[in-house]
Amino acid sequence: MRKYNTLGKKLPYFFFKYLFGDRKKYGKVVNKDDSDWILWEKTYNEFYTENQKKSIGNFVNEAGYKIMGDINLTSKNVLELGPGKISHNKYWKSSPNNYNIADIYQMFLDQNNELFLKSETNLIKHLINDTVKLPFPDNSFDVIISFYQLEHLNPLNEYLEEYKRVLKKNGVFVGAIPAEGGIGWGLGRFFTTRRWFKAKTKINPDKIICWEHPNFADEILNKLKDIFKVEKLDFWPLKFKSIDFNLVISFKLINKK
């Protein structure tokens, strides 16, 4: 079975660290007492609004959301992890019975209240600990949704096994990831969000990139293939299966237990 890889990892380190963070210096494990990290947590909401929900960032994110048009949500019990503003709902072709959202921050749970006010879907909010273990029994959900979340999780394999545990047999795991570690993604960030960091904050982006995105897309895809059955992978914008020359990879996976 094909293993994914990236040309980005083969760049001389002088160039690599400006595209993907100085990983030799800062590693991939967050130092929560670090002054840059403390400032980043205070800045994150502004960053998200300015860079992910406007202009090119929003356009790129939308490309991943479209896979929701392939998912049957009718009468399903659904869990979305790190839901943001559930911007993919415009692509739904059916509605679930229960829509569970889980996040470590209450404000990200509460921002979705209005979306379900006139809906027959039951919105259930779960404020969870920043740990691998989820507070749900085995085989709880028909569908798990994860958009632009897996690149943040460390240790990734343990989180994925936990998702598998709470997903029913033949349940669907759907979502998207950025093409992190690919040359296209690295260059795009260098000329957009890295410039935002430099212009708007005193935060060291070469540090935060390492801690915010510890997982590259090839590592995520290879682990997903090991744990779930791949039903669909979509690469955008160029469609062919290259991490380096695309920006977003969306997935539909089946839990074969």
Write a short abstract of this structure:
By secondary structure, the chain is of the alpha/beta class. It is 36% helix and 20% strand.
Topology:
Elements: H1 13-20, H2 23-26, H3 35-51, H4 55-65, E1 77-81, E2 98-103, H5 106-110, E3 122-127, E4 141-147, H6 156-166, E5 167-178, H7 183-191, H8 193-200, H9 205-212, H10 217-227, E6 229-236, E7 248-254
Parallel strand pairs: 1-2, 1-4, 2-3, 4-5
Antiparallel strand pairs: 5-7, 6-7
Helix pairs in contact: 6-10
What keywords describe this structure?
257 residues; alpha/beta; Rossmann fold; 7-stranded mixed β-sheet; 10 helices; 7 strands; 36% helix; globular
Beta content: 15-25%
Task: Spell the H/E element sequence.
Answer: HHHHEEHEEHEHHHHEE
Continuous helix count: 10
Give me the Rg, rounded: 18 Å
Q: What's the number of extended β-strand segments? A: 7
* Strands in their spatial order, largest beta sheet: 3-2-1-4-5-7-6
Quote the CATH topology: Rossmann fold
User: What CATH first level would be assigned?
Assistant: Alpha Beta
CATH superfamily: Vaccinia Virus protein VP39
* Fraction of residues in helix: 25-40%
Number of separate structural domains:
1
How many angstroms separate the termini?
19 Å
CATH architecture descriptor: 3-Layer(aba) Sandwich
User: What is the global morphology?
Assistant: globular
Structural classification = alpha/beta
Low-confidence stretches: none
> Mean pLDDT, nearest integer?
94
Largest sheet, described in full?
7 strands, mixed
